[in-house]
Amino acid sequence: MRAALVQGALALALVAGASPAHALFGDDEARKAILDLRGRVQEYQDTTEQRLAKIEAQLADLTSRLSNTQLDNQAQVDQLRQEISKLRGQVEVQAHELAVTQRQLRDQLATVDNRIKRFEPVDVEIDGNKATVDQSEKKAFEAALALFRGGDFKSALTAFSQFQSQYPDSAYAPAVYFWIGSSQFALKDYKAAIASHQALVSRFPQNPRVPDALLNMGYAQAESGDRAGARRTLQSIVDKHPQSPAAQLARDRIASLGR
């Protein structure tokens, strides 16, 4: 009994001490560990309840004997009463130990559950599409975006580039290309901005950010002196995405470029 509890405590210590939790094991293994611990709780409860039932049966038998048997020997009566008192004490001790152990293990299991939930994937909506991402992934993207919106384009570029390296297959990938290109544009690195936006258009041609990426490409081409290239890029928005908000901006920019 005590060995089972010690093993359970060690398992809990391993889970609780992991930093982060998924560094120790994956989601499936973590859930398996929790199920195992819950099984230990149930096993301990079942075993203890069996012991309680046995003690209570003995108690009932002694009480029945005391009530129904004519005992002339006072010593026998006293002995039975002592045994009944002892068994009642054992029942109380066992019941208390069970309640305490159950409460402790429930608290520990709740802690493990909460730790694992902190690392479970979450559902998000990205550019109108639903996706499932890691919580750390979501936080990293949002932190990088906050830097850009705060006007710290250099730090935003670094953060988005690091995100791209750490999560190469992320559902955020099209958005990351867009914000990298936008950061580069803001820093006046037009050549790099064109390459980043072109990567988005080439790799994710159906993504809703494509018109805006083409618009930024056209602007970057114009700023770098490639007016003919800018006109072609901007015209492609008008031709292929005429209903997009970027289309009207493209028309205006084409008009300003002249011939």
Automatic annotation (TrEMBL):
BP terms from Gene Ontology: FtsZ-dependent cytokinesis; protein trimerization
Q: Any idea where this protein resides?
A: Periplasm
Q: What is its main location?
A: periplasm
Give GO cellular component annotations, separated by semicolons.
outer membrane-bounded periplasmic space
InterPro entries according to UniProt: CpoB (IPR034706), CpoB_C (IPR014162), TPR-like_helical_dom_sf (IPR011990), TPR_rpt (IPR019734), YbgF_tri (IPR032519)
Functional note: Mediates coordination of peptidoglycan synthesis and outer membrane constriction during cell division.
The Swiss-Prot or TrEMBL record describes its family as follows:
Belongs to the CpoB family.
Quote the NCBIfam families the UniProt record gives. tol_pal_ybgF
Q: What is this protein called?
A: Cell division coordinator CpoB
Native organism: Zeimonas arvi
